[in-house]
Amino acid sequence: MQKAIKRYFPVFVLPTLIAFTIGFLAPFVLGVYLSFCKFTTVTDARFIGLGNYAKILGDGDFLHSLWFTALFTIVTVLLINIFAFAVAMLLTKKIKGTNIFRTWICMAAVIKRYSGTFPENTYIFFKIWFLGISYPDALAADWIHDDHLHLRNPEYSWRADRGSTD
User: Fold this and answer.
1) What is the distance of C-alpha 36 from the center of its chain?
2) Taking the CA of residue 110 as centre, how many other CA atoms within 13 Å lie in the half-sphere pointing to its CB?
3) Structure pTM?
4) What is the pLDDT of residues 24-75, one digit of tens each?
5) Cβ pair 127, 141 in contact under 8 A
6) Cα 95 from Cα 97, distance rounded (Å)
7) pLDDT the model gives residue 35
8) Helix/strand/coil (H, E, C) string of the chain?
């Protein structure tokens, strides 16, 4: 048995290793290299060293965003884990009603999973079968161009006040 495991180990590990290299490792290494370059497209990248990092660390907006994101992450992770631990402790006690609460938690997870796609699929189904719209047109996101949503308004773009991205 041990000999068979050693013999077929590469057969099972090699495809995973290749997929990991192509799907994660190569893009990660390329991204790290490009962070030290000035470029418009990947093919015209010009190495500039730590210039990009000096530029971004000198930007007050970036530092504020970084600090806010780090603080938000720490607070939410702590609160979620404290709450989850408290609920787990309560559910392991012999308290009346814990089975109902466990069912409620499981149902909430199931409903959350399917409620996000159901309205969208129902809307597409309605557009195709009842309004006679073709399939590609039914999938078109016409709400993106709605002026009331302000998605085309440059005022709401985070780069609007920055000008060029050079």
Assistant:
1) 24
2) 6
3) 0.49
4) 999 999 999 999 999 888 889 999 999 999 999 999 999 999 999 999 999 9
5) no
6) 6
7) 94
8) CHHHHHHHHHHHHHHHHHHHHHHHHHHHHHHHHHCCEECCCHHHCEECCCHHHHHHHCCHHHHHHHHHHHHHHHHHHHHHHHHHHHHHHHHHCCCCCHHHHHHHHHHHHHHHHHHCCHHHHHHHHHHHHCCCCCHHHHHCCHHHHCHHHCCCCHHHCCCCCCCCCC
- Residue appearing with tokens 């702590």: 78
What confidence score (pLDDT) does residue 143 get?
47
The position carrying tokens 């796609």 is 117
Show Cβ contacts of residue 50 under 8 Å, excluding neighbours closer than 6 positions: 36
Burial (CB count <10 Å: 0-12, 13-18, 19+), residue 23: exposed
Amino acid 133 reads: I
